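Retro notes
What went well: the complex prediction finally ran end to end.
Inputs used:
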Amino acid sequence: MLEINDLKKTFDNGTPALKGINLKINKGEFVSILGPSGSGKTTLLRSINGLETTSGGEIYFDNKIVNKNTILDVQKKTGMIFQEFNLVNNLSAINNVLTGLLNSSNKFLSLFYLFSKNQKIKALRSLETVGLLEKSYSRSDELSGGQRQRIGIARAIIKKPLLLLADEPVASLDPKAANLILSLLKRINQDFGTTILCNLHQVDLAKKYSDRIVGLMDGKIIFDENSSNINTTNIAKIYT
Ligand SMILES: Nc1ncnc2c1ncn2[C@@H]1O[C@H](COP(=O)(O)OP(=O)(O)OP(=O)(O)O)[C@@H](O)[C@H]1O
Ligand SMILES: [Mg+2]
């Protein structure tokens, strides 16, 4: 469902962030990316859904090349989850989830929150999936970090995406909340067949929840293995 061929990204200031990435991900896989700070994890995720322009190589998503003409379709079929949740603080949980239905062409609607009954039902279903139905009308800044991330996930899944891109979704959470969030992603992966690509810093969590782990260092893939094959030798290669 995702194929990345020789992907390169050099930022305008000359920083080479990705130096020829080759990665193939099948539908329904849960893949984690591990790598030290600055290895290119965020840049890779942002390149997939067009938040970052690329400098070379190709990305194929759902059998179509990702480019200017296809990017809106790619964005419709992908959901993104962030470390800092990226919620609008003074909005209720349900309104934050509804913003997941907006794209750049209808963003003006967000000024008025003109959502249909059908869309509101979808938002409530997403909140139910993440176990937060009873908090639907709470302001998002009145919730805990773990609950806020569950709203972030509800916002990402409201469009029923084929692919969820999660950029260090548990970095701001304590171990208990981190496990809860990753089990939720695993459940979404299993129940809906949603493919998951997740940047993580914790090796133990990557091994516990993902099918496959990709090790990134200095803009290059150092290993790409089934989680059960990951050992201290692999890990030492990326954290040296
Ligand atoms: N907007 C930007 N302009 C210039 N350089 C950038 C920009 N964003 C990232 N970089 C550089 O690209 C490289 C990869 O950064 P990236 O954010 O992808 O790493 P990361 O693996 O996500 O790190 P972290 O674990 O700290 O989140 C780094 O050297 C970084 O400084
Ligand atoms: Mg990052």
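What we learned: The mean pLDDT is 93.
What to try next: split runs per interface for comparison.
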